Each structure stands twice: as structure tokens, then as C-alpha cells.
Please model this.
Amino acid sequence: MKRIKFDEQFFEIDPNETVLQSLLRNNMQVPYGCKAGVCQSCLMRCLDEIPVPSSSQIGLSALQQKENYFLACVCMPENDMTLALPNKEQVWLEAKVVEKEFVSDNVMILTIQSKDPFAFFAGQFVNLRNRAGTIRSYSIANTPNAAHTLVFHIRILPNGQFSRWAASELDIGMTLSFSHAQGNCHYLEGKSEQSLLLIGSGTGLAPLYGIIEDALENHHHTGEIHLFHGSRDATGLYFETKLDELSQHHANFHYTPCLSGVNPDKHRYTQGRVNQIALEKFTKLDGWRVYLCGQSDMVLQSKRMAYLQGAALKEIFADAFLS
Ligand SMILES: Cc1cc2nc3c(=O)[nH]c(=O)nc-3n(C[C@H](O)[C@H](O)[C@H](O)COP(=O)(O)OP(=O)(O)OC[C@H]3O[C@@H](n4cnc5c(N)ncnc54)[C@H](O)[C@@H]3O)c2cc1C
Ligand code: FES
Model:
């Protein structure tokens, strides 16, 4: 059994346990967010002169890798390790809540305004942090603008630490901390005639909506853009009207709302799982760019299918909302 040393104390790592799980089990106060190797909130450094598992360094810069930084939530130690939090804390920026709208029983659109100019691509994600120190990742659903606003679609989970707090306690005018934008799930310039396939479940629509807006409004994308948005019931298709309007204004934008549960209108909604519907409709994806966002099972399965159906790996962009 491997041991880790942190804050002058030793802890054992259970089989199949990550460094983060062991620290949390032992009531250590360390930052974390997605617990899935995405948001980098759990960045730590190994002080020993032994390499850390390379799988825990995916997404870190070459310098961070060389300096033995790693992500605690995906690190299963191969040796005993002496750990420290990074010298440089994540940089947190400040924003004010300017709008909060409930668009369904459990989806809230939150708009914040950064105090300072803020660079991002629509579809990337930021980490939001509340006063209690809870950090969660959310995708940016709008395009950069002069007012420096960022829009998020937040699914409110019954026991969700962050989402419940945001729904019930976060008010207009309050401030919130957020990180720099991360991730490569965004529109790429230079191939405006390429066909785009976007598949999202639930609030996985957020980054896709930002990408579509960016493609149509800022880059005048001329290729066909096919969006498939899926939910269990019709209330989860919370942007139906907006997306219908968008398809009326742009002949190359096509929107397919999909329901996996009760379907009140078979002419209006396609019945089934969103990724199966999309990938059965478009079976040859050579030359396409594919964006996948939402529930992790759906995203991982669709990534494999899109690749097997001809999409190049470098043309598949995915954000799994792992929990
Ligand atoms: C890159 C990235 C981008 C993301 N973008 C968005 C976004 O745009 N919109 C959005 O709503 N979320 C997004 N998420 C998910 C988000 O970061 C949080 O994980 C989510 O909001 C739950 O946080 P919470 O604190 O409310 O719930 P937690 O307190 O973390 O969890 C509460 C309970 O709900 C369960 N749970 C957590 N997530 C889910 C889920 N998806 N389905 C069912 N049960 C769950 C947990 O297991 C736990 O039991 C993103 C995640 C990542 C990694
Ligand atoms: S908590 Fe480890 S990368 Fe998000």
C-alpha cells in the first residue's frame, strides 16, 4: 500500500483510490472541482525526485510536468509521495451577477459581468467559486462581447452543492469568482464550409449554443450545421423557441429536438437517445467536425461512434460533464 505525506501527516492510499480521495477521506482541506481531470482545481506538486504517473499530468504545461505538478483527482500513486499545494494559487477573477432566469424546473441561465476585460472562446469553460470555496466547472454559452458578460446554463441538482446554492442564494448584484477560460471545445476558424454536427444532452447545450452563435454571427459559417439536443422530457428542451428562431434565420442551421422519455408530439420531437438519432442520421462523417457535450456516458460513447463513422479524432471536440 502506498503512502502520501501532506501537511506533515502521512496517509495511506487504499487500492483504486486517488490522491484526492485519500486526502478528502482524511478530512484534509484541499481544493477540487470536477474530480475528473478537467478543471485543474486540484493541482498539486510532488516534492520527491520521482516521476508522477503521466496520466495525472494530461493537460498540464510542459513546465508544470517537468516540475512534477499533477492532478490529484486522477492520480493513483505508483510510489510513496510527498505532496504540496502549488506555490501559485489559481488566479481568480471577479464578476457581478447581472441576470438570473429559470428557463425550466431545473435549469437556470446565469449571466455574470467580469470587472475586467476577459478573453475566451464561446464553448470553453471556466471554474466558478462561491464564498464557501465550492468550485465547479461551467461552459460559456455566449460569445465575447464589449460588456464582458458570460452566460451559463446551470442544471440545478436536488443535492447539488454549487447549483442549489446558485439557484437559491446567489442574487443579482452579488459577486462571484471565476477562473480563466479553459478547454478546446470551441469554434475553429479557417474552414467555414465544413459540415458541423453538434450533439448535446441537457445543459450540454450551453457550449454548443455558444459555438453555433459564434459560427453563424461572427464567422459567417456557410457549411451545414446540425444540432441535436436531447432530454428525457420536453421541459428539458429549454431553448426550443430560440433554436427554432435561429433555424428560421439561417438556412444552413438545422435543429432536431429529441426526447428519450414520454413524447407528447411525435411530429415535433424525434423519439430516442440523442446520440443514436444523430449518428444514425449521419453515418459518414469523413470531413465533418463533431462537438459532443453533456452526460459523460453519452459523450464517451458518441466519441467512439463518430470516430468509427469517419470523423478524424482531431475534429471531435468533447466536454463530458463528469460528476
Ligand atoms: C468541463 C465541464 C463543463 C461543465 N459545464 C456545465 C454546464 O455548462 N452546465 C451544467 O449544468 N453543468 C456543467 N458541468 C457540471 C458541473 O461542473 C457540476 O458538476 C454540476 O453542476 C454539479 O455540481 P453541484 O455542486 O451542483 O452538485 P454536486 O454537489 O457536485 O453533486 C450533488 C449530487 O448530484 C450528483 N450529480 C452530480 N452531477 C450529476 C449529473 N450530471 N447528473 C446526475 N447527478 C449528478 C452527485 O453525484 C451528487 O450525488 C460541467 C462539468 C465539466 C467538467
Ligand atoms: S478536480 Fe481535479 S481536475 Fe478538476
Observations:
- The helical segments are 19-25, 62-66, 161-168, 205-218, 240-249, 274-281, 296-308.
- The chain has a mean pLDDT of 94.
